[in-house]
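Thread: "does anyone have the structure for this chain?"

Original post by V.I.:
We have the sequence but no experimental structure in hand. Need at least a predicted one for the grant figures.
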Amino acid sequence: MAVIAASVTPLLLLDDALVIIAASRSFGSAFDFDVEGIRGKPLGALGSDAWGADHLRLMLTAVQVGGDPLRNHEISLTPRGKPTQRLRLDAELLSDVGQKGDDLILLTITDLTGIRAQETEEKISHQDKDVQLQELQHRIANSLQVIASMLMQGARRTTSAEARCQIEEAHHRVLAVAAVQNHLAMARTGNVRLRAYLTTLCRNITASMIADPAQLSLEVQVDESIADADDAMSIGLIATELVINALKHAFPDHHPGKITLSYRTTAGGWTLMVSDNGVGMNGAAMRAVAPLAPPGLGTVIVEALARKLGAHVMIAFGGPGTTVSISR
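Reply from O.Q.:
Generated one for you, tokens below.
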């Protein structure tokens, strides 16, 4: 009894009828009870519906009958004139105690009100941050779309074929980054579904660079892979460069044909592949990375991004068309 009375954790000692035999002073302070005044009263008579709830009574009776302790049972308690409290109850059967050898129940009460309130605040804060991040992603994507539009307008106004080509390539690179931002804005996580992302990229390239889709087509074959935003952006930029490279060099003089972009996850990594059935390159079989075209910014971008991803580049040529694969 002295141990229970002095406990800093709110405690109640109950008999087999759930009558209070003893209560700790900390219980009286926490819930505004006179510990001497509640002794001998039923638990359900403590002045709150929660203490007398049927489910709590049944749980404590089950502790008596079965002997299994009650662990981490939470209830809401609303004392008169006070805010609602969230409590955790733990109950343990004490067998053969006291002068009569009765089976008693030791009920421990832990106030979780502050913890649960903090968890709620943190959850709301995380939700607010998620909303703000999505809004930021939308704004970035919109800004990049504006930049891409301005680049395309500049390409249309220039009279230099070389300058127009370079501006159009810059336009597609910006769109590749904008597409990542769009997918991030729609996703709840920081990951990007590559099928939707790479399909969007190729659709944009088709719309702006392929005059007759019936003569020259661009097909996308991507599995259900997911990549984080940083890897997805690198993969998208590589794909953009390789597709543009194929469009520029594989089909001279409006030669008809097909470009296929594929991405597959394997047991040990992944492979991004861009192949065409165009005029091909001079050489034989397969060798390690060589200039994908006359050395230029596109080649530098592909090689740099492949290194960043920890991947290697291979070129297969010699037959109809060319295949470039990036594998990790």
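V.I.: this helps a lot. Residues 113-157 form the longest helix (45 residues).
O.Q.: and Residues 23 and 301 are 74 Å apart (CA to CA).
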